[in-house]
Design a protein that fits this description.
2 copies of one chain form a homodimer.
Chain A lengths: L1 E2 L1 H13 L5 H16 L10 H9 L10 E6 L2 E5 L5 H19 L1 E9 L6 H9 L3 E6 L20 E5 L6 E5 L6 H9 L9 E2 L5 E2 L2 H7 L8 H18 L4 H5 L8 E8 L3 H15 L15 H13 L1 E2 L2 H9 L1
Parallel strand pairs in A: 3-4
Antiparallel strand pairs in A: 1-11, 2-3, 4-10, 5-6, 5-10, 6-7, 8-9
Helix pairs in contact in A: 1-2, 4-5, 6-7
């Protein structure tokens, strides 16, 4: 079914305020969840909201916590998220990175003790909306084996890169696993094979069977050994720069995923001056022959289409998830 | 066969000086080529050297050119490589990024009009040797179709991330294609299938046949649509930040690959203070069960083994490539 954006957001606000959260904070959190559903990222919008509420109830997310500065050197700062809402901490840190970039050309914030930021693209878009290049990444609990191994020891550590562009920003938002667990679940529910191999089955063979992958716990890193390596270095960067928890310590804490580490970088750029270069790149990329029935898109292009449709026709929501929200 | 490191380097120097290049510049270039072979990256060491010489002879690389500053804002600078040797321009720019990072915590250099930097890992190692985190990437000529397309429109745009670590730095050096053209050629020569699918055959089926991939010109991006998206954003970043040539303009120039754009970022860190965190991450990553006959390595670990062997026993070189060097 479809629900007007404002109604969806108001429901999120209602639930959060019922937990004793101030209107200001409830509104900020609700906006992120509503925007994520609006942009077609259900897995980190409506569908994830009950988990966020549960985390607050269990005391894993402190909705009243604010980030505090722990270190600073010119255009590089360290902040402690004090286990506050991940979306608010992340939004705050990208804002700080933008301020540092305004003054220094580039700004870098490392954040520790924060919580799941939901959709990483949110903070890339935030930078692009302000006219800056945005780059950010997070570590996660272990959910993928390293190359050569069979047990989860790496996070899928999403990486986000955004470039401001008139008519729709370029926003890449990609986890290091070929498919997210949300996507695997979706293919399971639809009883469809994955479009490409997404992991290994119990016998160590590459498979497009989402159920087999979830059972073996052997999700595939993008590019095999390459995504495995990129996951390791992103965890190293986030942990070392923030002095926070690594995928190792998050996974071994015995708790649900909390207290993760993140990095936010903003770089000054002149979107107007660069419009021609950006257009040249996108036009050339799209200029080749396409596979029948497919098209060539820049990262973020399809999201914009979904957003437009959801704003015109109402945000598409899963019936069951919507009913659950109303019942909270 | 194996050749002592010093002999290999001296041969590179001899050839370069025979082209009228000063000892200082010849020595710097020779060191990069010799180091690359020493670290097992033949494709950008000895095997690539004749191409570099040819580029100088054709005037595509100006061995006497020095980079010039074109723009500056705090910790962000733009430089013009003036089509000088790519390795010298890249080394200069990472050095500049390190200086900016020393003063500002982070430094970012965008470089235009430069040439192939050979092995990107060289500049990551440079930062790590100085005790800094290094991150750099380059665009290239189009050599890979975008997701949904069948004709090369993207570069494989290598990305390098290095983290200083006692006992061997962590250095990730990865192109956006699953296999480099050097690697495809190697499997062709050995008449062996690739270990995983590396592209599409003429009929659009994924294949491990290197010859079929070279014929179709459809190399596979890492992670399918994900590596395609990452390649686009890296090209956008390098082009927009430097104001230089994009993969589009490099490919459409009608010339061999020259005048590429690159970005170098250095970040201050305290390797000693972070030793425990780094050790925790690597130990945990390696702690899981392994696939029979495989081991779990951190990026850069295997390179270090190769380096030690090549320094002890002499640098392994291809007989034919060595004879060619001697004849230059």
């Amino acid at each position: 079914m479809r629900v007007p954006y404002d109604q969806l957001k108001a429901e999120f606000e209602r639930v959060l305020m019922s937990l004793g959260i101030s209107f200001d904070i409830a509104q900020k959190c609700a906006t992120v969840f509503a925007d994520n559903s609006r942009d077609g990222v259900q897995s980190h919008g409506l569908n994830r909201f009950p988990v966020f509420v549960q985390y607050i109830k269990e005391g894993l997310v402190n909705p009243h916590a604010m980030p505090t500065l722990t270190g600073s050197l010119g255009a590089l700062e360290q902040w402690d998220g004090n286990l506050g809402p991940g979306m608010l901490n992340a939004g705050f840190c990208m804002e700080r990175a933008l301020l540092l970039a305004a003054n220094n050309g580039i700004g870098c914030i490392a954040l520790k003790n924060t919580n799941h930021w939901m959709r990483g693209g949110t903070y890339g878009l935030q930078a692009a909306e302000a006219g800056y290049i945005g780059l950010c990444f997070t570590n996660t609990t272990a959910n993928m084996p390293p190359w050569g191994g069979t047990e989860p020891r790496l996070g899928n550590n999403p990486l986000v890169i955004a470039i401001p562009k008139a008519g729709g920003h370029v926003v890449l938002d990609m986890a290091m696993s070929q498919f997210s667990f949300g996507k695997l679940g979706q293919y399971q529910n639809d009883q469809k094979p994955l479009p490409v191999a997404g992991g290994y089955d119990h016998d160590g063979n590459l498979t497009t069977d989402a159920t087999a992958i979830k059972q073996s716990r052997r999700a595939l890193p993008i590019g095999f050994w390459k995504g495995s390596g990129l996951s390791i270095v992103l965890d190293l960067l986030a942990t070392v720069l923030s002095g926070g928890n690594s995928t190792a310590s998050i996974s071994q804490s015995g708790k649900k995923e909390t207290g993760v580490s993140q990095v936010f970088i903003a770089i000054k750029t002149d979107a107007e001056k660069n419009a021609e270069l950006i257009n040249e790149i996108i036009t050339y990329t799209k200029s080749g022959e396409t596979i029948e029935g497919q098209e060539i898109l820049y990262p973020g292009e399809n999201m914009l289409r979904t957003r437009k449709q959801n704003l015109t026709q109402g945000v598409w929501v899963d019936n069951e998830a919507w009913d659950k929200l109303l019942s909270l």
